[in-house]
Amino acid sequence: MPTKVITENDLEIITPKLFKVILLNDDYTTFDFVIEILRSVFHKSEEEAINITLKVDREGSAVVGVYPYEIAQMKVDKTHSLARTAGYPLRARIEEV
After folding, report:
1. I need a labelling partner for 7 at 20 to 30 A (CA). Which of 17, 46, 53, 78 fits?
2. Is 50 helix (H, G, I), strand (E, B) or coil?
3. Is residue 18 one of the residues assigned to a domain?
4. Are 20 and 65 in contact, with CB atoms under 8 Å apart?
5. 43 domain residue, yes or no
6. Number of compact structural domains in the chain
């Protein structure tokens, strides 16, 4: 049986498609809760979380991270779950980059 040597040129690197997670503004979710979501789910610093929260408030939405699809969807689901448990209508969505 012949042996095939695989070289670096033979390797095909497949990079996953990336998706933006976008946080949407509403009139009921508190700034403190949004900041906590950004810190706990998206691992943002206090300063980043405050700046993103202000952008969502002023502009209606903001990108909070870019991830492969499965991770982006998990973060959206976690955000929705925590918001519903706390009684807030906070919403997030994903959009392909």
Report:
1. 17
2. helix
3. yes
4. yes
5. yes
6. 1
Q: Between the CA of residue 71 and those of 13, 25, 38, 83, 96, what are the distances in Å?
A: 20, 22, 15, 18, 13
Residue 55 amino acid letter: K
Q: Is residue 48 part of a domain?
A: yes
What digits encode the pLDDT tens for the residues 22-44? 999 999 999 999 999 999 999 99
Residue 26 to residue 53: CA distance in whole angstroms: 11
The domain that holds 80 is classified in CATH as: 3.30.1390.10
- For the entire predicted model, the pTM comes to 0.85
Find the helix or strand (DSSP H, E) in which 72 lies.
helix 69-86
What number of CA atoms fall less than 13 Å from residue 20's CA on the CB side?
10
Q: Choose among 28, 45, 40: nearest CA to 88.
A: 28
Query: How many whole angstroms separate alpha carbon 23 and alpha carbon 21?
Result: 7
Calpha distance 35→55 (Å, rounded): 12
